[in-house]
Hints:
Blueprint: E1 7-10, E2 17-18, H1 20-33, H2 41-47, H3 52-60, H4 66-84, E3 88-89, H5 93-102, E4 106-114, H6 115-124, E5 134-137, H7 146-155, E6 166-170, H8 173-182, E7 185-189, H9 196-200, E8 206-207, H10 210-221
Parallel strand pairs: 1-4, 1-6, 4-5, 6-7, 7-8
Antiparallel strand pairs: 2-3
Helix pairs in contact: 1-4, 7-8
Amino acid sequence: MTAHPTHIVWDWNGTLLHDIDAVMVATNASFAELGFPPITLATYRDLYVVPVPKFYERLMGRLPTDEEWIVMDEAFHRHYWAAAESAGLAEGARELLQEWEREGLTQSLLSLAPHEKLVPLVRFHGIDRHFLRVDGRTGPSHTSKAGHLVRHLAALDGTGVTAGRTVLIGDAVDDALAAAHVGARAVLYTGGSHSRSSLESAGVPVVDSLAEAVRTARELAE
């Protein structure tokens, strides 16, 4: 084993948590608040981008006003958290976390979900013990992951985790951009928010299962 073995930073929504159905319910509910028609999953995956106001701009043809953003953001989170309670982990997620830990390797979790909502949900699924650290978003929701990843890795200082040996596994182009920002690698998973073609635009490996994501993470760090 190398002095600094591979560390995985897992994304939560759309990666470890299979919540795309809850996301669609909440997205269309937020549109309905302002009289916009519902969208399909295919449209969502083709157009989704972080920060989220840019996603709404792609759908509406303009950025939402401050007032519209407040209404849509509040509606989305209200409907999402009601629906997310019934969302389960992605296929094989629990076993992959256990196996990685059994090998003596480290992993952590970083999400743009609000920290105070994220931690109880991760604990509810019984997987919190597998992570060195669990961090959710602090501050406004119209943000990208890069700054949060800087903070996350800084908090892991002293554990042997280094950016150069870290692979972020997520479901959004923003995950790849965040990893590049800190000098880490990324693997993107098609089970969440983006279409395969959107993910491939990031120029990093794109996979169709979390098992494949973990295998690819091992190869990237070799």
